[in-house]
């Protein structure tokens, strides 16, 4: 049904009498034409009143928005005869009709709707739209579309229920049935009205899948306590409040409304709902952009740089970190609130990362800027590389969230290449280490290294050293190149970790060995 | 002279490895270790220690005087090795069960006795209660001088 018909008349009259606003009236009559809701408030009010006065007209589809202005004026002059016809029995309260007075009344303060508390009244007006857009523009975001999300006070659901019960009773008397599903949802109607206006002001379309979100939280302090009775009627719907938040969340209230019996509801809540003195207030208007992902590979040339900040008891143990050196510039360019750094594996503070570098991804949270060309990304990469000789990045690019999953996937399956500088206590000659080159697929048992045992569970890991290549340096030093399974503890393979990694270089050479330097490719 | 003689290494980050100290009788010349026994009482074997998870739940809790193991030497002596620090027992070295000579050949590395993790709150006080190498040597010197 796209507009009002004859059978809506009782409902319209009833709701008008109880100070429900025109748009809510349309909702309860199941009117689905978005255009109707967008009409100016004053026009809707006039037309509804006109509709009510036309009860002598034909019964069929009265398109109530085509009433002729001159006719309306004539009607108004005859209001003396009108009122009694329009009074219905069965209104629960005798409310004097406000629509038979002169235009002075129409210009006086609009009565705040007892169902939507002003959401479909004041908050559909240009002033509010301008207020929202001012906030958006001052926040200085880059966006190509918007999502407008609205948080309504929970008591609106309670009032909606009360209004529905009222209407149901009325239509029941007349032998008509009204289904809850026919009622247009308040949020939906609100978006029909406000989206085009926001779109016009912001210059971009509304898109539910978009990344840029404008959110408004509405509250109505005057009626805050209206939900309380639900707690006594359905106590198990309301979980104890975390922190200082109210127990009466929208979800909890809706759940309780589903459970509560009609009789109990009517016992505790006025039907129709009372007229409020004040409008809702828009508590906060916030903007948020969806996260952006930047990926690349990094090389680490310092033996004194942790991957993530090293802070113990509030004290920083080592200056800076890989993630800070990279993200510092990204944060500045993208103007994000915060970042999350992740990488495919990691290396110790004292290990260099050579070769192609380690894949990493940074999630930039709530970025103000989102558009970057390939050229600009290259420039950003250069900036990062110029700022530090401890790290270098390459292949810097924008990626999707799924890229992070893919990056992490290969972590376990990869083969890693290392170069270790090894010291021996007893002297070695070239021949003593040559045999290492011939060992293939060496199986290791590695107990959790002592150096990480305080924060990892005790376990045994089986890992494989695929190949080794030795490079003799002097009687107490040689370099060893290794290709190993991912997750192998190289340092422990070299020094044996109190015999808890078996076999190890020390046991293979029958000497005490230690690792002086380690590089990963 | 029945002083308890051990030394402990802090590997880093609170983990402690219990090993025999240099001056321990078992490490002096002429001693041969015949066996190592982790069954320290009828109800308690250190070998049955099982830990799970990051926080090492299920670990046997050790006080300073908790015995870790008893070591027998060929001359009929038996030495009880005590924990000397408070904390959770993470593991005992099973290699010295099968190869007791390891205890004497590599007492500070592969011949370790046990790994203990003190409580987070106590780790600082544990560290402070230990002697450095230098302090240890001074203690030994004093003992030598006093007993002569």
UniProtKB/TrEMBL annotation, chain A:
Subcellular location field: Cytoplasm; Mitochondrion; Nucleus
EC number: 5.4.99.25
Enzyme class: isomerase
Keyword annotations: Coiled coil, Cytoplasm, Isomerase, Metal-binding, Mitochondrion, Nucleus, tRNA processing, Zinc
The UniProt record lists the keyword Transmembrane: no
GO BP, sorted A to Z: tRNA pseudouridine synthesis
Main location class: cytoplasm
Reactions this protein catalyses: uridine(55) in tRNA = pseudouridine(55) in tRNA; uridine(54) in tRNA = pseudouridine(54) in tRNA
Pfam families, A to Z: Pus10_C (PF21238), Pus10_N_euk (PF21237)
GO MF terms held by the record: metal ion binding; RNA binding; tRNA pseudouridine(55) synthase activity
InterPro entries reported for this sequence: PsdUridine_synth_cat_dom_sf, Pus10-like, Pus10-like_C, Pus10_N_euk
Residue span, Pus10-like C-terminal domain: 293-521
Keyword Isomerase: yes
A single cellular component GO annotation: nucleus
Domain Pus10 N-terminal eukaryotes: 113-287
Family to which the UniProt record says this protein belongs: Belongs to the pseudouridine synthase Pus10 family.
Protein known as: tRNA pseudouridine synthase Pus10
Origin species: Crotophaga sulcirostris (Groove-billed ani)
From TrEMBL, chain B:
Gene Ontology terms for molecular function: actin filament binding; actin monomer binding
Recorded GO CC terms: dendrite; filopodium tip; growth cone; lamellipodium; nuclear speck
Organism: Crotophaga sulcirostris
Keywords attached to this entry: Cell projection, Nucleus
Claim: Nucleus is one of the keywords in the record: yes
Entry-linked InterPro entries: Abitram, GCV_H/Fam206, Single_hybrid_motif
Phylogenetic classification of the source organism: Eukaryota, Metazoa, Chordata, Craniata, Vertebrata
The protein's name in its UniProt record: Protein Abitram
Signal peptide interval: none
Any Gene Ontology biological process: dendrite morphogenesis
Domain of life: Eukaryota
Chief site of localization: other
Localization of this protein: Cell projection, Dendrite; Cell projection, Growth cone; Cell projection, Lamellipodium; Nucleus speckle
Pfam short name (any one): GCV_H
Family: Belongs to the ABITRAM family.
């Amino acid at each position: 049904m796209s507009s009002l018909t004859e059978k809506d008349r009782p409902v319209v009259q009833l709701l008008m009498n109880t100070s429900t606003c025109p748009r809510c009236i349309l909702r309860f009559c199941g009117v689905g034409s978005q255009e109707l809701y967008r009409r100016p408030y004053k026009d809707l009010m006039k037309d509804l009143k006109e509709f009510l006065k036309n009860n002598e007209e034909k019964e069929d589809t009265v398109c109530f928005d085509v009433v002729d202005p001159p006719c309306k004026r004539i009607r108004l002059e005859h209001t003396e005869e009108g009122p009694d016809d329009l009074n219905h029995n069965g209104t629960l309260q005798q409310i004097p009709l406000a629509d038979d007075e002169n235009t002075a009344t129409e210009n006086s303060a609009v009565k705040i709707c007892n169902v939507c508390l002003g959401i479909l009244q004041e908050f559909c007006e240009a002033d509010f739209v301008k207020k929202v857009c001012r906030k958006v523009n001052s926040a200085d975001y880059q966006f190509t579309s918007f999502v407008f999300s609205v948080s309504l006070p929970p008591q609106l659901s309670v009032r909606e229920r009360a209004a529905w019960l009222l209407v149901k009773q009325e239509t029941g008397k007349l032998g008509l049935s009204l289904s809850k599903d026919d009622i247009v949802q308040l949020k939906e109607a609100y978006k029909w009205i406000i989206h085009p206006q926001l779109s016009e002001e912001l210059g971009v379309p509304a898109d539910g899948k978009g990344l840029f979100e404008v959110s408004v939280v509405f509250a109505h302090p005057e009626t805050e306590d209206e939900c309380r009775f639900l707690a006594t009627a359905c106590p198990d719907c309301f979980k104890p409040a975390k922190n200082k938040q109210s127990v009466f969340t929208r979800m909890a209230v809706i759940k309780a409304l589903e459970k509560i019996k009609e009789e109990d509801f009517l016992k505790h809540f006025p039907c129709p709902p009372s007229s409020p003195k004040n409008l809702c207030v828009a508590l906060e208007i916030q903007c948020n952009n969806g996260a952006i992902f930047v990926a690349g590979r990094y090389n680490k040339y310092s033996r004194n740089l942790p991957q993530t900040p090293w802070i113990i008891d509030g004290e920083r143990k080592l200056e800076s970190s890989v993630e800070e050196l990279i993200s510092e510039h990204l944060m500045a360019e993208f103007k994000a609130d915060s970042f999350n750094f992740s990488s495919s594996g990691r290396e110790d503070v004292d290990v260099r990362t050579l070769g192609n570098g380690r894949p990493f991804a940074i999630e930039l949270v709530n970025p103000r800027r989102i558009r970057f060309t390939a050229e600009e990304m290259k420039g950003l990469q250069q900036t990062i590389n110029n700022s530090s000789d401890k790290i270098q990045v390459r292949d810097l690019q924008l990626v999707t969230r799924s890229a992070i999953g893919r990056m992490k996937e290969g972590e376990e399956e990869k083969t890693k290449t290392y170069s270790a500088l090894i010291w021996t206590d007893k002297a070695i000659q070239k021949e003593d280490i040559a045999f290492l080159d011939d060992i293939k697929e060496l199986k290791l048992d590695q107990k959790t290294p002592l150096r990480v045992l305080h924060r990892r569970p005790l376990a045994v890991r089986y890992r494989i050293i695929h190949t080794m290549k030795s490079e003799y340096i002097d009687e107490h030093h040689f370099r060893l190149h290794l290709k190993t399974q991912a997750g192998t503890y190289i340092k422990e393979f070299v020094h044996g970790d109190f015999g808890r990694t078996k076999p190890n270089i020390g046991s293979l050479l029958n000497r005490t060995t230690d690792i002086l330097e380690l590089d990963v490719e | 002279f029945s002083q308890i003689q051990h030394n402990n290494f802090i590997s880093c980050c609170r983990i402690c490895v219990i090993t025999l100290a240099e001056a321990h009788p078992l490490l002096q010349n002429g001693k041969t270790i015949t066996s190592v026994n982790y069954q320290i009482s009828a109800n308690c074997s250190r070998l049955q220690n099982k830990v799970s998870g990051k926080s090492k739940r299920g670990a046997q809790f050790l006080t300073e005087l908790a015995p870790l193991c008893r070591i027998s030497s060929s001359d009929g002596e038996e030495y009880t090795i005590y924990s000397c620090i408070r904390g959770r027992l993470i593991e005992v070295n099973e290699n010295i069960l099968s190869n007791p000579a390891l205890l004497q050949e590599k007492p500070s590395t592969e011949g370790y006795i046990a790994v203990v993790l003190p409580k987070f709150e106590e780790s600082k006080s544990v560290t402070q209660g230990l002697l450095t190498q230098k302090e240890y040597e001074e203690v030994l010197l004093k003992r030598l001088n006093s007993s002569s």
